[in-house]
Write the structure tokens for this entry.
Amino acid sequence: MKMKLLLLGICLYSSASFSQNSGSVTGNIKDMATKEAIPYATITIKSGEEILTGDMTNEEGKFTIKNIPYQTLTLEVEYIGFKNYSTTITVNNDKKDINLGDISLTQDSEVLEGLEIIAERSTIEQLVDRKVINVGKDLTTAGATAAEIMNNIPSVNVDQDGNISLRGNENVRVLVDGKPTNMDAKTLLKQIPSTSIKKIELITNPSAKYNPEGMSGIINIELKKNTNDGFNGSYDGGITFAKEPKYNQTIDLNYRKGKFNFFGNYGYMNSVTFNDGTIEQIENNATQLFHIKNDSKMNNFKVGFDFYLNDKNTLSFYTNQNYSDGFGIVDNNIIGNNTSPIRQYDRYDIDTKNQNYNIAYKHLFAKEGHTLDIEGNYNTTSSDQFASFNLMGNSIDPYNDKIKDEMNSKIVNIDYVNPLSENSKLEIGAEMRLTGTDNTYDTTHATIQDANFEYNQDIYSFYATFGQKINKFSYQLGARLESYKVEAAYRLGTEDAPFKDDYFTVYPSAFLSYQANDRNMFQISLSRRVDRPSIGQTKPIREFSTPRVISVGNPELRPQFTNSVEFNYTHILGVKGSITAGTYYRAISDAIQRTFEPDLSSESAIADDRMIMSYGNFDKSNAYGFELSANYKIAKWWDIQPSFEFYNITQKGIVTLKNQQTGEFEMINREVEANAINARLNNNFKITQNLRASLFGFYRGPVDAVNAKSKEMYKIDAGLRYAFNNNRASVSLRFNDIFNTMKYGYSSDTPFITKGEFTWESQSLYVGFNYMFGGKSNRAIQRKYRENNEVQKSGSFF
């Protein structure tokens, strides 16, 4: 509306006659924090409330407005994400041409939450219920996919197999735009281009408003969606040089006109990766040598629109489509003094299709913050895997496996928010989530039967939270009531093994915060959560098989429940940055862990040495830890983001050990107390106005567990980025794992005494190019994205 009034004022004023009684005003608009120019800021000249004329700053932040009548007027400067600036100017014969010099704008943190701004460096915000990493260009050059940049995020770790953990725990729920998908987190992260990510939210102790799944919390990846007026977009392309080059391309397009906003995103990746490993079995002096190659292609696109019915009602729709195909080769050789040489050469051909459809309606009531959201989400995944196994040096003939997985989920959400007063707020909502899977296994193996596994899960829930601010204190209380029902049916040959589970649970949560002053905020929170078994953990159909290891799920896995308490502290260092510190304690029941057991049913000649890798429910365990992170500007040209994490976990469980005297396998109770540390340091350097550099270091300490002990891991990365064409284009260079130190090593005594080490293409060189095109002015923020679910001001509930 302001822009329309501005244009109208300019037209009216241009038609008037001013002769000689007019002057001009010039100036430069800059960001007060960074001292950088702000292009496309709106300058308005007003007489009272009447707009007389105006203009926009150019690429260098400069403006000149001519034909200003002689009188005392108001000059206003507006730019989305910054607080408005206003000053009085007087144009007369003595001051005909006015030069205001540099005008510095202050960032508005409340407005910035609703914008999509790609900064040079990533920033971390500590909100009342989550930590938000706004992904900058330094992170997008760290790797081509979400999986590759996750190790640069505080509290998050990704191992050599792509398994993600939060605060040392793999039981974490990964969402995209606040929505679950049918894909497991490991596959999902590899198929999201890093350049498509707007921000990453770490919700370590979610309130009752959120689905309670994920013992160690939620990682929400929000993808970009542009809302600029007109047509605009960006292109990102890159090549990763390792043993073989890997390619990634991403294009974002957006068109905003009137009541409609259309957006689209397309990403393509072509990747060939290698992984080599060694497992030594001490008892018989045998060594397994692994050489693994994966060749995959991925096409991902997201398209949708927003329809602004009026100022109070918005209808949105989008679909995300992901298609991937490729093959993997596992070449496994077994050599040793007490074992005849064995070689198994396996090939896995996989074709996966994931489709997601989302429709949402948002209504804004007359009172600010009073909203109603209704949303429906449908997700379907189909995967076909054809595997061929050729075991040489053994009597088993070559055979083939065919696995077909079909999964779908239907989710309906209703969320209602009512600010009862200036200092209190009520939130209520309901969710229906129906998930179904059908897994079929066919094999040509002579002694293994075909199988089918069905797993259906129905969840109905209702939540309510109430929050209030009393002086410097804020609190929020809530509860989520949930009905959970699961039915599983496993058919092996002609035998059926059904499984059912049905229960009703209450998940309470409580938050209390204290805003001591503008620079210090304290918060304590409590919650109860659940981690339900995934399809991969429950599916008894084997995923892979080597001469010594076979992997299957456990359909009778029970959910694990976690009661947790957290304390967080945030200190603002003024313009220098901020420091956040936190500590937590968790009590876990029926913990889901990896299990390793001897394969006593195998009829092959290597049965005595073969392990079954699966999952089981262990006894109660406890965990506690603390973390410290900061954003700090050491100098105008140098800022750092250090983080340090320590955690302790006590695990109890039943493990299988081989008695070295009798040769029999025995099941024993084992309790392990493990301490671990993680440390990261990210440095960003501003060499020139257009040239930036980064240096990243990472260390993960050794960790003990009930089944195995893993060794330490560490690396150093370095990067450069050069911007040109008025910052519309840039070239990036990133050297990952400079000294080639990233390796995964472990040792174990269950069920056999083994040790191993795996290496992958951690050392690589990434070269990327980015180009932005189209208009950049007048960002639209008529509504806050419904998936943000975040507090307007950090440090308070209101």
Observations:
- Residues 2-14 form the longest helix (13 residues).
